[in-house]
Design brief:
Structural class: mainly alpha
Helix content: over 70%
Number of strands: 0
Largest sheet: none
Length: about 140
């Protein structure tokens, strides 16, 4: 236990590490606060009724992965799912597409390029996922 406490003390002596930990905690706080903010125009009573009906099944599983934000119709409902999808697509392309195979072999510069492409693909995946989420929400919640 004493060694663990010493390690924690050493962490805060390194300025860059302290900044990174602080930034990570701040972004987690923003995400958690945003997961409680419902989308505009959503009736909380109807949303609660919908939650009780769809607690099991696929929507329940998706809600679990989004930390409960999916069922609350929050602004961060999709969570990191679009990024994970984009990352999987890029990894599969690294096996099948020669361009991505070359990038994987280039080292640090190739990794940076792959990360950049993954972020762009995340946005491209996010647009239809968000549209489908809103369309599904509009169909299930009566006006």
């Amino acid at each position: 236990m004493k060694r663990f406490i010493e390690t924690l003390k050493n962490i805060y002596k390194i300025e860059d590490l302290r900044f990174r930990i602080g930034t990570t905690l701040f972004l987690l706080l923003i995400y958690r606060l945003g997961s409680f903010v419902s989308l505009p125009g959503i009736d909380p009573a109807q949303l609660e009724n919908l939650q009780s009906q769809t607690a099991d099944g696929l929507l329940g599983l998706i809600n679990m992965f989004s930390g409960g934000a999916f069922a609350q119709a929050s602004i961060f409902a999709l969570g990191i799912m679009p990024y994970i999808s984009a990352s999987i697509v890029i990894q599969l392309m690294g096996i099948a597409v020669p361009y991505f195979q070359r990038l994987q072999k280039e080292g640090e510069s190739g990794r940076r390029k792959i990360n950049q492409i993954t972020r762009y693909l995340t946005v491209l995946i996010l647009i239809p996922q968000a549209s489908a989420y809103l369309a599904n929400l509009n169909m299930q919640l009566p006006d």
